[in-house]
Write a structure and sequence with these properties.
This protein is an all-alpha fold. It has 3 domains: about 1-20 and about 375-500, no CATH class; about 65-180; about 185-330 and about 335-375, no CATH class. Helices cover about 55% and strands about 5% of the residues. It is built from 26 helices and 5 strands. It has helices at about 1-15, 30-40, 50-55, 55-65, 75-80, 85, 90-95, 100-105, 110-140, 145-155, 165-180, 185-195, 195-200, 230-235, 245-255, 305-315, 315-330, 340-350, 355-365, 380-390, 405-410, 430, 435-450, 465-470, 475-485, 485-495, and strands spanning about 260, 270-275, 280, 290-295, 295-300. The radius of gyration is 24 Å and the shape is globular.
Length: about 500
């Protein structure tokens, strides 16, 4: 049976293209609902289409823009409440599971390799817990736009769990810095990421220390000015690569960011800790001198000097344009029209970085429901996997092998929390469309269609229930192939069809 599915799907993938609407058409009401479900959520769950029909598209959009309007399912709240990766602070995680904690709990351990093995086991535990929280919400949370925005912002402010202590902190970083601010204010989001231990460790600002006139620092490590984080704040997080900054600006910002580091067990009396985010400002490592960044004087000071610099960068016109372009690319098309980007940038500027208002401008734009942008985005591996799983009524805990999702994404080339470069995973077709990735998607579609990946129940994704959601977008070739195939193959063929790869 598997061989038959593979042959059918390979034929489909190379002979079918998504149905494009004629340029003079307008989206009908059902298509507008599909556009919203595909762009503002990870795709429809059974009943979503009927729910929007009942309450109206405008109300659904408003609910998604205001996630607090939804009550989270009790089972999801209970699961998240017990998840240490998101509930414990970075300091608490390190205190209970870090190297020193392992030594204290196992005083007889003298072998360094054995200690590292136990630490790696704890790292793995927290990675799995972080992934669990992400998948649970993506599959089951009614606050779908918040989850989609969390994915967007995580890639914008990327950290990789593969770097040291970020293994422990990635779940908390996503929960406290990203998700909590995903539909809030950009300046708050920038500040939360800047003050989180995961970011400070990932981009080396924990090593960024101002050397005193005698050449000494107060740390055992060989420290000095480290420009890594300062450069990425400008190039990726705010102004953009064409944002008008220069190397002198990077150096100045690096000096401003001295003293901002991870929270250590012994806190000096004059330090300013941020327990929730696992960071601390250490005055004895900070350069208090006046600096100039993108032509603006940043007066001498301590933590307030850092906040001045973040205020400046968050409100710069180049930042408004850079963020607006990325939002338009993520939610509309790979090459968004400049007129739309400029319109979003104007909203960003006028509202001082209110993310919700920028999203409203996008959704209310003429481009959002323009037929030329209907189902033109190619799903990333993560989005494809989640969109397939949402077609069932299953919860994360119902999956036959829930942690197998991590392996699936590894095979498809988008391992969760593992983008090594600070620019995060891309959201374009060019980044993800390849023969190898398509074959992995076929394998996943086959497993889900036969129930091998779900609960052993081959009807977990009910073909008769999901086919109406997609029948209008299937090409004649795809539809004929599915309809003429044996009944037991139809679900897998639908899930692996070219049209399902787009949204």
């Amino acid at each position: 049976m598997f061989k038959a599915i593979y042959l059918y799907l390979v034929l489909l993938l190379f002979t079918s293209l998504p149905l494009a609407k004629a340029s003079n058409d307008e989206l009908n009401e059902d298509e507008k609902i599909n556009q919203v479900l595909n762009r503002l959520t990870y795709g429809p769950k059974p009943g979503d289409f009927e729910y929007i029909k009942k309450i109206g598209l405008a109300k659904f959009i408003d609910q998604q823009l205001n996630p607090e309007s939804y009550n989270m399912p009790d089972y999801l709240l209970a699961s998240l409440k017990d998840n240490e990766a998101i509930m414990l602070s970075p300091g608490q995680i390190d205190d209970q599971y870090g190297r020193k904690a392992i030594k204290d709990q196992n005083p007889d351990i003298t072998d360094k390799a054995e200690l590292n093995k136990m630490l790696a086991k704890n790292f793995r535990k927290f990675y799995l817990l972080s992934a669990k929280a992400r998948f649970e919400r993506a599959m089951s949370s009614p606050r779908q736009l918040q989850e989609v925005m969390t994915d967007f912002w995580f890639n914008h402010f990327n950290v990789s769990h593969d770097k040291g202590l970020v293994h422990f902190w990635v779940g908390n970083y996503e929960e406290r810095a990203i998700r909590a601010n995903a539909l809030g204010n950009f300046r708050d989001l920038l500040g939360a990421t800047a003050n989180h231990a995961a970011m400070l460790f990932y981009l080396d600002n924990f090593l960024n220390s101002y050397a005193k006139p005698n050449g000494k620092t107060n740390q055992k490590q060989k420290l000095g000015i480290n420009e890594n984080y300062a450069r990425e704040i400008m190039e990726l997080h705010t102004l953009g690569v064409k944002g008008g900054y220069h190397q002198d600006d990077v150096i100045s910002l690096a000096h401003i960011l001295t003293g901002l580091s991870i929270l250590r067990p012994k806190i000096p009396a004059n330090a300013i800790p941020n327990q929730a985010l696992g960071s601390c400002f250490y005055p004895n490592r900070h350069d208090f001198s006046e600096q100039t960044v993108i032509g603006q004087k940043i007066s001498s000071g301590g933590l307030d000097q850092i906040n001045q610099a973040l205020d400046l960068l968050a409100n710069a016109p180049a930042t408004a344009h850079h963020i607006s372009y990325e939002i338009a690319q993520y939610f509309l098309c790979d090459d968004p029209p400049e007129s739309l980007v400029n319109s979003l940038a104007q909203t960003f500027t006028e509202t001082h970085g209110n993310i919700k208002e920028v999203m409203k401008s996008l959704i209310n734009s003429k481009e959002f429901f323009d037929p030329k942008y209907y189902r033109v985005k190619y799903k990333s591996p993560y989005r494809y996997v989640v969109s397939v799983l949402r077609l069932s009524d299953l919860k994360y805990a119902d999956l036959k092998n829930p942690y197998g999702l991590i392996g699936i994404l590894n095979q498809m080339g988008e391992p969760l929390y593992s983008c090594l470069t600070p620019d995060g995973y891309k959201c374009t077709k060019e980044a993800w469309l390849s023969p190898q990735s398509l074959l992995q998607r076929i394998s996943f579609a086959t497993a889900c269609g036969s129930g091998k990946f779900l609960t052993g129940n081959s009807d977990a994704i009910n073909y008769d229930r999901i086919y109406p959601l997609f029948k209008d977008i299937l090409s004649k070739n795809t539809n004929d192939t599915i309809q003429n195939a044996p009944k037991q193959l139809q679900t897998a063929l639908l899930l692996g069809s070219p049209e399902i790869m787009y949204y």
